[in-house]
Amino acid sequence: MSSEIATKTYSLSWLGHFFSSSVGRKLIMSLTGLFLCLFLAVHMSGNLQLLKSDGGRAFNEYAYFMTHFAPIKVVSYITYFLILLHAFDGVALALKNRQARPVKYAATPAGSTWASRNMALLGIIIFFFLVVHLKSFWFEYKFGAMPSVTYDGKEFKDLYSIVKEAFSQWWYVLLYLVSLVALAYHLIHGFQSAFQTLGLSHKKYTPIIQAFGWIFSIGVNLGFAIQPLYLFFIQQS
Amino acid sequence: MKITLKVWRQKNAQDNGRFETYNVADIESDMSFLEMMDVLNQQLIKDKKDPVAFDHDCREGICGMCSMVINGHPHGHVKATTTCQLHMRSFKDGDTIVVEPWRAKAFPVIKDLAVDRSAFDKVIQAGGYISVNTGSAPEANSVPVPQDMAEKAMDAAECIGCGACVAACKNSSAMLFLSAKVSHMALLPQGQPERKKRVISMMKAHDEAGFGSCTNTGACEAYCPKGISITNIARLNREFLSAALSSEQPV
Ligand code: HEM
């Protein structure tokens, strides 16, 4: 007769225990965070088409492709979901972690970078930026009354003119730059932290991951920052 | 030397607690921080006041009993030192020093600067051991251990369980402690039979004790008196994820 240990199976509740453990919750943060890094890289490089001097044609065709090609549409819904998951789990974790120290210090220990101690604050800044950003462009593109342009007899929504208009306002450009600084700090700690969470710490690879994380965080954010600055200074003149 | 101390005074776990200011004179620069506290207590006893309660035992930096946050630094600002090995020559004459207990929900204050660290015992009881009957020492060459593994295991086993990692962490997480205990056994042959069960049970005990999770800030490593590295936390994550997901151990 086989023993109970050999034959017993578990109900799904073990998954709940796993994902509510402190490392299980960080696994969610790390995997969603890394996915969002990939998303940022794609989003930033695609938008570099704003820099072309073609009156916005390449950008408008790209926007059409991104909103009409089925696999991309699926990926974008996954992205919305994962941003929300990352943001809510991140804020919930930060609140739970605060409760682990009910009485605060008079003199608080440091021994760590400012960014690493303020991931939730940085995240909340990013989240508010996302709300404004999606309202200005995503919502308008989907549901707003958009101007249109015709290329080779085919009609396209003219997202380019909306973007150009938005970035002609100095405060809007400033909002972008401040948010990008927050995002850069979030990633400078977050990128390498995600690998540590996954247990990927290695004498040979960790220095590469850390260096790449720096270059990635600065590079992606510079790439994003160029776009409003270019439209504000070059196009307006 | 003359020092002004702002010391956390708290009658018991229920009391709200507050800082009291004391002036201590006649301090020698070669006194340890604890000896300076002894001078303060002598002064308080002479004045018929209640001396400050604080934990201490070996005063040689190996037992893990001393525990004070000094000017916001667990065990003081000198790297890789316990409070008992911190000397007054690291301070200047006339300094004002703020002294607080470890602060964490899982480490309630017993009195003044002494906190209850039995949450660590619970984590150890959950799996920080190997189930063998100890007899006489085994023949040294019967269980081969490669040198680099032995070094890593010994580095992790240096943890004295003082709790400075919890005190330093913004989340009051005990991951550095837990990772040291899990690592030193996961790296050695004797730890293998219970390796998966151990990490799952100890993680559960850690979370249940009310410690927070890890944000990888590295503050624990910066303040650890034994210099335990956060690469142990990466190993802990690896051990836990693989035990929980790929083994048939219950989570
Ligand atoms: C596209 C935007 C974002 C990217 C690429 C990103 C990326 C990351 C990465 C890679 C990590 C490290 C995960 C780890 O330590 O294992 C992280 C952590 C974190 N993120 Fe984000 N994030 C983004 C947006 C947000 C938002 C909107 C919020 C909250 C409103 C947020 C809150 C947090 C918090 C609180 C942590 C730290 C969790 C912890 O270690 O305790 N993030 N993020």
Describe the protein:
The complex is a heterodimer of chains A (237) and B (251). Chain A is mainly alpha-helical and 237 residues long. Chain A has a single domain (16-100, 117-235), classed as 3 helical TM bundles of succinate and fumarate reductases, CATH 1.20.1300. Chain A has helices at residues 4-7, 13-20, 22-47, 57-68, 70-99, 114-117, 119-143, 159-166, 170-197, 206-235; strands spanning 148-151, 154-157. A two-stranded antiparallel sheet of chain A has the order 1-2. The radius of gyration of chain A is 22 Å and the shape is globular. With 251 residues, chain B is an alpha+beta fold. In chain B, the strands form 2 sheets. Chain B has a 5-stranded mixed β-sheet with strand order 2-1-5-3-4. In chain B, strands 6-7 form a two-stranded antiparallel sheet. Chains A and B meet through helix 2, helix 3, helix 5 and helix 9 of A and strand 4, helix 6, helix 7 and helix 8 of B. The structure holds protoporphyrin IX containing FE. Residues 26, 29-30, 33-34, 36-37, 40, 86-87, 90-91, 93-94, 119-120, 123-124, 126-127, 186, 190-191, 193-194, 197 of chain A line the site of protoporphyrin IX containing FE (HEM). Protoporphyrin IX containing FE is lined by residues 26, 29-30, 33-34, 36-37, 40, 86-87, 90-91, 93-94, 119-120, 123-124, 126-127, 186, 190-191, 193-194, 197 of chain A.
